[in-house]
Amino acid sequence: MKFPGQRKSKHFFPVESRDPLLSEISPLNKPIASHICGIDQVLVDIEAHVPESFLEKYALSKGHSMLIEPEKAAAIYAELTAHNLIVSEFAGGTIGNTLHNYSVLSDDRSVLFGVMNETIRVGSSSYRYLCNTSSKVDLNYLQPAPGSIGQCITLIAPDGERSFAINKGVMDLLDVSHLDKTLIQTGSALVISAYLVRCEEHEPMKDTTMQAVAWAKEAGVPVVLTMGTKFIVEDRKEWWQQFIRDYVTVVAMNEDEALALTGHGDPLLACEQVLEWTDMVLCTAGPVGLYLASFADEEQKRETSRQLLPGALPEFNRFEFSRPMRRNDCAEPIKVYTHISPYMGGPDRIKNTNGAGDGALAALLHDMAANDYHRLNVPGSSKHAARFLAYSSLSQVSKYANRVSYEVLVQHSPRLSRGLPEREDSLEEVYWDQ
Ligand SMILES: Nc1ncnc2c1ncn2[C@@H]1O[C@H](COP(=O)(O)OP(=O)(O)OP(=O)(O)O)[C@@H](O)[C@H]1O
Ligand SMILES: O=c1[nH]cnc2c1ncn2[C@@H]1O[C@H](CO)[C@@H](O)[C@H]1O
């Protein structure tokens, strides 16, 4: 486990240099390993830049992720190829991207549950998927199936907005027998997306996902849900609210999904509402940056030294230096919030924002897993005097998440090709030390 970013804390990693008293009691030479698990519809992104008329021609709703018939996918693919519009074919899937980015950032293990072709030809979509996935993502538990993995035709309009046309292939055939209960119950988090429950009645993906979240909940493993697109939420708003109440620890969404889920267009109010149902919220807001919200115990809260910010909840960031906690782990829970503007104001030019939100979530997962890793390896540390959800404060995590989103935006790909620089010397004063 690589530590998430710069810290001035006395509890700095690596854990190998742990408390000498503790080492005598437990003379471990090797740190106890940690991992996170995720379920995804395994698919490749086929990216093309198209005029608006292209979306109209194929009746694709802008900003949506739509399931389409294989014949229609073939027609779209043929037209894109004929006009030489395809710019890349790259591993995708919202959880696949998140796990990959988590593994790149943390240099640690994530386990992907999903469906993969049982035979793989060089150059095929499944081959591309394997080539573009970090070797730290454990693919050994994938369910083999005849047929093709999913294709996500990612159409970028001139204004940068992306629309997904999904040719699903075998992506929703994941059977519960291809989950691993022990791995799920010993992970630092189980990550799922709202897309997983929109399979057809006869397909097992939804039931498999429900089983996985039940196992995670039983073991107290945080269930982290990313919302997909606003259309998925709008279709079944009440169902999602109940699902979040019943199973979820962390909700990740953008401001459109937040509006669909809560009825609040203001991300802060949306976060406040979601905290009525769950423990932590990441709400990205494009050029406005991102918000994080969670609970802190009255005893553990820490006041910010930054400027207090105005907003729908005045001075909402007052306790942003607090580390996030579950509501049930607080004797006296208070809601804490933070906001951060885009790193360095955002890149000069953004070709598409695909995956920027997934990147932010990967950073949050990294901080959560680092906390678990530290607790496993240095259980007596005062860092764990109370049960926290993350290693760092909300404020630190938001900086980190935003920094990762920036990296995704400048790389023009939802999947990071490298981790973040260890030190960003030029930014020490102006950014990291703020
Ligand atoms: N136009 C922009 N200018 C500056 N920063 C941006 C812009 N768009 C996105 N970002 C950065 O990326 C982060 C996530 O962006 P956004 O809210 O678009 O995610 P998203 O819609 O969830 O993306 P996806 O679903 O494709 O992963 C923002 O919090 C911000 O830091
Ligand atoms: O139905 C879906 N299931 C899983 N992932 C999806 C679906 N639609 C789009 N994406 C994925 O979302 C990522 C950006 O956040 C894209 O990389 C795309 O592959």
UniProtKB/TrEMBL annotation:
A biological process from GO: GMP salvage
Kinase is among the record's keywords: yes
Substrates-to-products reaction catalysed: guanosine + ATP = GMP + ADP + H(+); inosine + ATP = IMP + ADP + H(+)
A Pfam cross-reference name: PfkB
GO molecular function list: ATP binding; guanosine kinase activity; inosine kinase activity
Binding site for GMP: 93-97, 198
Signal peptide, first to last residue: none
PROSITE patterns the UniProt entry points to: PFKB_KINASES_2
Taxonomic placement: Bacteria, Pseudomonadati, Pseudomonadota, Gammaproteobacteria, Enterobacterales
Annotated EC: 2.7.1.73
Known function: Catalyzes the phosphorylation of guanosine and inosine to GMP and IMP, respectively.
Species: Gallaecimonas xiamenensis 3-C-1
Keywords: ATP-binding, Kinase, Magnesium, Nucleotide-binding, Purine salvage, Transferase
Gene3D superfamilies linked to this entry: 3.40.1190.20
Pathway per the UniProt entry: Purine metabolism; IMP biosynthesis via salvage pathway; IMP from inosine: step 1/1; Purine metabolism; GMP biosynthesis via salvage pathway
Cofactor: Mg(2+)
NCBIfam families registered for this protein in UniProt: PRK15074.1
Keyword ATP-binding set for record: yes
Database matches in PANTHER family: GUANOSINE-INOSINE KINASE, HEXOKINASE FAMILY MEMBER
Boundaries of every Carbohydrate kinase PfkB domain copy: 134-301
Designated name of the protein: Guanosine-inosine kinase
Family: Belongs to the carbohydrate kinase PfkB family.
